[in-house]
Each structure stands twice: as C-alpha cells, then as structure tokens.
Amino acid sequence: MKEFISLNQGSGGKFTHELIEKVFIKRFGMAEPLTDSAIIKESGFNIAFTTDSYVVDPLFFPGGNIGKLAICGTVNDLAVSGAVPMYISASFIIEEGFPLNDLIEITESMAEEASKAGVKIVTGDTKVVGKGKCDKLFITTSGTGILKPDFVRISTGKGIKPGDKLIINGPLGNHAIAVLSVRNNLSFRTTVTSDCASLNHLIQTVLQSCTEILFMRDLTRGGLATVLNELAGMIKSGIMINELSIPVDDPVKGLCEVLGFDPLYLANEGKVLIVAGSGEEQKVLDILRSDPLGKDSEIIGEIVQDKHELVLLNTSVGGRRILDMPSGEQFPRIC
Amino acid sequence: MKYIDEFRNKDLVAKLADLINKSVIRDYTFMEVCGGHTAAIHRFGLKSLLPGNVRLISGPGCPVCVTETDFIDKAIAYSRMKDVIITTFGDLLKVPGSTSSLEKEKAAGADVRIVLSGLNALEIARLNSGKKIIFLGIGFETTAPGTAVTIKQADEENIKNFFLLSAHKLMPPAMEAIIKEGVRLDGFICPGHVAAITGSSIFNFIPERYNLGCVVTGFEPYDILQSILMLIKQVNKNTPKVEIEYNRAVTIGGNSMAQRHMSEVFEPCNTRWRGFGVILLSGLTLRKVYEKFNVENKIPVKINYQADNELCICGKILRGLETPDDCPLFAEICYPENPLGACMVSNEGACNSWYKYSQVK
Questions:
Q1: Does a structural domain hold residue A23?
Q2: A1 within a domain of the structure (yes/no)
Q3: What is the pLDDT confidence band of residue B166, given thresholds at 50, 70 and 90?
Q4: Across the interface, which of A260, A262, A335 has its CB nearest the CB of B193?
Q5: Of A137, A152, A167, which closes a domain?
Q6: I need a labelling partner for B83 at 20 to 30 A (CA). Which of A47, A95, A240, A307 fits?
C-alpha cells in the first residue's frame, strides 16, 4: 500500500520525530541537537533564527486567535533559546472567500502582540489560493534575535547535572482545551482561555538575575511529557517529576477526565520549562512568581542519574510510573 | 477538585494500601474487567502500592480490544464508498484491520470524522443530506443507551441518510465465558459505568452460580484500592457477594430509563469477540422496527476475512490467561505506534497500558 502522511505525523510526538529524521534531516542535514531555534555565529554575533507555521482550527478561540499565536509562538521559540527576539517575518496563505474583517482583526492582534513583545514585523508575503485549497488561513512567521555568548548552551542543556531542578511557569493544558472547546464537533462549553502569551520579557528578567539557567523550552505541541523526554535523551540522564506539584486548573482537569486526555501531553502557548542549577531554584521561582505570566510557577521535579534516560513520574497517590513520549494524537475515548 | 481530588488523596491511599497489606493472608487474583480500571491502575502506578501476593489481571472490558478485525474491515470498506461519511469514537481510528486502519484510510482521502456521541453523528447527517452517514456503534451497556436514543431520534425525524454499524456488546456473558474458560480467579473488580446503567444486580449470578465475589468499582485510585480490600475480605471470610463500592454512581437497579431505551431499540444476538470467538447472546443488534438503520442490511459489503497475526496473544490476554509480558511480540514489534493486536491500540487496552505506564519499583 502507498504511504500517505497521516495527522499523527504532525502531533509532535514520536511520529513527528520519525518523519523529520527520515525525510528532512536525511536530505537537509542538521546540526545536532534539534532545538526550537538555530543558533548561528556570524560576525561575532550569536543569532537565533526560527520559523513556525500556524494552522490552528478554529482561527479564533478564547484567549486569542491565529495572529496572536503566530507572534507569541515565534517570540517564545527565540526567547527560550536565550535570545532577545528582534525581527519577525509573516507569510499568509489565504483561502479565496475569507472575510476581510477577520483578516484585519487577526493582523491587528499580531501588531498588538508584536508591540507588547517589543519585536518588529519587517517583511512578509501574501498568497491567495482557490476555495478548498487551504483551510481559511495559514500563517508562517520566522524570527531572529541576538543572544549573549553565555546563553548559547541553554537550548542544548549542556552542563545539566543530577540534582538540578525543573520549573514551569503555570498550569498546563489551557491552550489545548480552549481550542478544543470551540471546535464544531465537540459539544462542551468551558470558561478555560488559552494561555497564549509572549514570554520574552519574563525570560529575560530571569536570565538577567540568575546565573544558573541551564535549559529552557516552551511547552507547545506534545506538551510537558514530550519536552521532558527530549531533554532526557539530549542530556543522557533521567528525570523525576512529582505529579502533585504540576499545576493544572480544575476545568482542564475535569475535561481531561471526561475526554480521556492527559494534561501532561496537551499543548500550551505561554508555558516554559526551565532547568535551574541546584541552589538557584528558589530565586528563579521568586522572580517568575512576581510576574503575572509566572504567578503559578512551581518546581516540578529534578534531574536524576539514570542510564536508561527515563522520565519517571511520582503519581499523585504515591505510585510511580514511566512518563513516555506521546505516540500520535490524543483522541477522545469511547466511555 | 471536587469528586476527584478526594479520591486521589495521597494519605488516604497510603492508609488503604496499609490496610490491604495487613489483610492479606494468602495469594489473590482479581480481574479488573473494565479497560478504564486497567488504565487507572497503570496511570497511577497502583500495582507498585500493592503487596506481591495480590495479582491483578486485565479482562475483556476495553470495547476497542474485543472488537473483531472484520468489524474494522467492514468500516474500512464503507469508508471507501462514494458519498459516505464514517463517524466514530476516536479510539477506533488506529485499530488495525486486516490490511489497513481508518486512520490510514482518512489520510488516503476517506471522510472519517471523530464524534463524542451518536447525536454528534446525527447532526452531521442533518447537515449532509446528500451523503450517507455511518455511525460505528461500539461499547458495552455504557454507550449502547446513547446509540439507542440516537436511533430513536433519527426515526422520529425520519432521517434517511443515517446508519448504524453495531458492535455493541454485553458485559455479563463475557465474564461468564471467562469463568467457564477456567481462569483461576478470586473475584471481579466490576465495571462501574456499565453498572451505573444496568445496576449491580446483573452480576448477582456470579457469586450465586460460581462462588466468586464482585465489587462494582469507581475509577479513582481510592475506589480501586477500596474494592481490592473489599474483595480480599470477601475471600478471607469466604462470603462471595456483589458489593457496590462506587455507590456515588451505582445502585442495585440502575438507570431504568437508559435500560428501557436500550431494550426498545436493541435485542441480544450472538456475536464474535476478539480472542473469545462467538459468545451466545452477547451482542446487540437493532430490533426489526429499526432495521432500516442497520447499514449491513441496507448497504451490504463483502470483506475478505483474515485471521489475526498467529503470534499475537491478545485473545489469551483478554481472557486473563496470559499477560502482555508473555507475548513474543510485546514491545518488540508490537508497540503503540505499530499495534498488531487491538490490546495495544486503545488507551484502555492491557498491552497499551503496560507499555506506556510500565511499573517502576
């Protein structure tokens, strides 16, 4: 049977990795390790460079829209690499018949978010395709920023050792649940709003005050579980997480129970995982908590020695299990 | 959070685990019939809290896992027809048929849509009058009433483009089949959601006829440990009976309205279970008055039935005779990304749970 791309391969988990390796890396080559931004050394500067496409359905959701997301997402990819985000490009693929007013609203959100984040949208492209050739609107943004030489190691996790602490800046899963709640075919209502936000100012504050920030990654597609598994593989250590210290809002928890989802696998658009050197975690936590975007920050676990590179979860009831990489999409269950 | 956090309280769970440890006087084997219980046991790492002489084995209560390959093959055959929309619960998408899966067919162009209930599927039928909408009815007494209500609604509105492919099944006949198979058991952790519909009384025949205890159980860690403790006490005193642990949802008589809908729309039929073969009167088929919604009558399809992979032991696992660890394919060539047997597909399948949430002592 001929092979076709399935939705699974876009879910951010194992299938996506496999596709990237088998198709893209094989042909493009790639400097290891794979991180959200490439770091390019040029004329004495370290330049972070990233790109991302946004295809969220529906385009408008509680807490944001595709435009806001397209700015936050790219700003965050740069910020977690340690860079100060500076310039953004924006490409639009628009389906024939798309309401102009919606496009205006979306671009206004982009301008507003860019101004908040302190980045400039400096170039772009527009394509209009025939009806049915794309789903309403797709946006691709790329971004660049500059980072200090000290921060180059942040996206690789070099220097992480057992005992270092893992911190996240708030509850998980809100973005995924907010988007799901407004999809046509799912008939539930919630008050959950997306956490979609640019984290660059928050991250810069942390970087300026702390010396032991060893790793950062935003917790988007595939959620916390994916990032933890990628990190464990990258640094060849184990990770121990405490379920009780992972913040999840009640409505998200409830809907996850109903739908059979695990919040640790759900996408976020304003959450970052920070690995702080042992001893500096309290300082990082205090700084994060003093900012509205980090007021619910928690230390969720630590790096441990483990040659199997496993992510272990101490469950809320005192049991223990492996927290694996997600395989494919999470689907609502039968009963 | 109300009604969840209370049942996940670490101290209470520790106390229960301690009580269980103090109560054991021999070896015990209990079967959790429902896939929801299997998933919870693994997700919360409950086996790591139990003494070594309490053994839990997974039963046939994951609807995806017991669905025969030919059902998936039929659904795939329908999905390849012109102007057909397949509507299904999400779990079925990845289930391997003989040569393909609904997910692969979707990628290749079939119109396959995930719904949360039959009523979602009916709405799709209303909005697409030029197409035939086929709902894959799957699940036990828990989901069958929902399908029944959907069929009645379609009938009242005279919706002509909505059809059902039914794989609905009944739980008690499968439990009886397991006992008759000779699986050594000391009691059942009975499915809470099935019993919320049927009432706990449908399990009465098990202690009466087979001298085995039954505890109808909720799905939180506290519920499951509490039920294990109740079963241990029954075994210790040799007083097998049906008890309800999940009393915040389950009564002896159950939900009479749901039962009525179910029996008005469906009648029991013989049906084949993956791993068991045919179990008498264990399936649900549409009654004569609603037969116009039965897609197999309306649009017959032919499929080439192919047997499952010979090495796959899903059948034995579903009957409680072996565990995933015993399977030569497990984690070697059968894993969640490449499921060969149905137990690896669903979140609630025994193999999937074992693989994802391996117990770490």
A1: no
A2: no
A3: very high
A4: A335
A5: A152
A6: A95
With 60 as the cut, is the pLDDT of residue B325 above it? yes
Burial class (CB in 10 A: 0-12, 13-18, 19+), A245: middle
Which class is domain B69-170+254-298? Answer: alpha beta
Contact A335 B108 (CB under 8 A): no
Least confident of A118-132, A247-261, B239-253, B288-302: A247-261
Kindly state whether residues A283 and A213 are assigned to the same domain.
Answer: yes
User: Cβ(A32)–Cβ(A133) under 8 Å?
Assistant: no
| CATH of residue A50 | 3.30.1330.10
Q: Does A210 share its domain with A143?
A: no
Q: What is the C-alpha to C-alpha distance for residues A293 and A271, in angstroms, rounded to an integer?
A: 9
Nearest to A333 among B90, B103, B140 (CB): B90
Report pTM. Answer: 0.84
Among all residues of chain A, which has the CA nearest to that of B63? A334
pLDDT, one tens digit per residue, over B44-80 is 989 889 999 999 988 888 888 888 888 999 999 999 9
Closest-CA distance, A128 to chain B, in angstroms, reads 24
Distances (CA, A) of B145 to A285, B46, B168: 50, 32, 10
B129 touches chain A (CB under 8 A): no
- Domain membership flag for residue A54: yes
Nearest CA in chain B to A188: B116
Number of domains in chain A: 2
Task: Among A91, A121, A152, identify where a domain stops.
Answer: A152
pLDDT in tens, A98-147: 999 999 999 999 999 999 999 999 999 999 999 999 999 999 999 999 99
| A5: Cβ contacts below 8 Å, ≥ 6 apart | A19, B107
| Interstrand relation of A298-304 and B242-244 (parallel, antiparallel or unpaired) | unpaired
**Per-residue pLDDT tens digits for B106-142:** 999 999 999 989 999 999 999 999 999 999 999 999 9
Domain of A179 in residue numbering reads as 157-322
Is the same domain home to A118 and A167?
no
pLDDT for res A31 = 67
Q: Are residues A96 and A186 in the same domain?
A: no
User: What number is the ipTM of this complex?
Assistant: 0.74
Q: Could you tell me if A164 and A246 lie in one domain?
A: yes
SS3 content of chain B, % helix, strand, coil (to 5): 45, 20, 35
CB B10 to CB A318 under 8 A?
A: yes
Residue B358 C-alpha, separation from nearest chain A C-alpha, in angstroms: 6
Query: Is A20 within a domain?
Result: no
Residue A160 predicted with pLDDT over 90? yes
Residue B359 pLDDT level (bands cut at 50, 70, 90): very low
* Average pLDDT for A58-65: 94
**Within the 52-111 window of chain B, which residues sit less than 8 Å (CB to CB) from chain A?**
63-64, 89-94, 99-100, 103-104, 106-108
Q: Are strands B28-34 and B54-61 parallel, antiparallel or unpaired?
A: parallel
- Quick one: which of B129, B164, B160, B161 has its CA closest to B149? B164
Domain of residue A254, CATH code: 3.90.650.10
Chain A CA closest to residue B117: A334
Chain B residues inside the 8 Å CB shell of A311: none
Collect all residues with Cβ–Cβ distance below 8 Å to A226 and sequence separation of at least 6.
Answer: A12, A13, A265, A325, A326
Tell whether A166 and A101 lie within a shared domain.
no
Closest among A219, A226, A197 to A327, alpha carbons compared:
A226
Q: How distant is the Cα of A154 from the closest Cα of chain B, in angstroms?
A: 30
Q: Are residues A207 and A302 in the same domain?
A: yes
Shared domain for A302 and A181, answered yes or no, is: yes
Chain A nearest-CA residue for B141: A335
